[in-house]
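During data preparation, we tokenized the protein backbone, and the record follows.
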Amino acid sequence: MYEREVKERIKKINDTFKVLVVIGPREVGKTTLLESVMPENMTKISLKDEILRREAKENPKIFLDSYPAPLFIDEVQYAPELFQYIKMKVDKDKTRGQYWLSGSQLFDLMKNVTESLADRAGIVKMNSFTYSEIMRNTKKEAFNPDNLKQRKYIDVNEIFERIFNGGMPELYDIENMDRNDFYYSYIDKYIEKDIKKIGNVEAFKKFMKAVAIRTGTNLNYSDIANDVGVSVNTIKDWFSILVSIGLVYLLEPYSSNKIKRLTHMPKIIFMDLGLACYLANWESARALQLSNLSDNFFESYVISELIKSYENKGIHLEISHFRNKETEEIDLIIFKNNTLYPLVIKKTANPRKDMIKSFKHLEKTNMKIGNGGIICLYDKLMKIDEKNYIIPISSVIN
């Protein structure tokens, strides 16, 4: 079994909150990890079981009386009726770690947690494996532009193998698991269990493919609607589904009233690039690497790795991207400590100083500008100028 970076957070939250909530897409290892660390006196039940699910929905009070704390309820989103009664239970008892709740429908689950368990629940977001988890380096520090470090070089072929294969735990835990079989089944599971209300299943699958091909690009609802053959409003609704179940992250545009002519569209980031590669019909890592979409997939991979790494450590990451009407771009802006850290992400081993010329636009904000640079395939961490660096991808993900 692969170690998970988020394990220590789960233990800490169990010791400090009455309720632990673990959310994330299907098949990212939520249940496996929780089973491996749950206390010996804790009971685990899954609402995948139709009989248990019906009992929980129809008689939530009797259900919780029948299964006293400490209790781990898997797929809890299937019985939202439980939340109010869990609140009543934990309000009578100061014990920490009474209930563990996990689920894959992020929006529905978080809505119930916010409404019923505010201040009572600690929340952990899980994703598919990061690069460092695959390499069994779970003690890795989160990327910090103020403390850049040289790491072991990762060549372009390995990076694209990681992009192509993705980070779903089952692909690594089960020997000889066929990648295509896994992703084919994975998509069917989502549509069967989490996306039942969409109606037009074939159009939704076409939509998922259209989104995968556009990872790393600015969201254009009309463009996707034309490709799929449905209305713009339908595409907006379907995007909210992909975001709510954790498959896609929308990187919001940087906003400032001091900079004119900025784009207002978010950027599409697939959170597991292996799934995106499967949906986009890439047959090999090499084919993707040599394609005209390789830059977008490389950029998405770096951003998704950063998001996953920070979420594993429970660090809120405020990030955005910059693009003006003249198509000048900053691929990623990290905002922390009232400071902007600008980064461009390039699939190149030959970075040039002119790649950071768009950073000048941030000076108009009158905000403090921190260290920035070019995240790329160069093998050495080195300065470009006083505040900007050439940053090997290994210094970000390893």
Q: What stands out?
A: The longest strand covers residues 329-336.
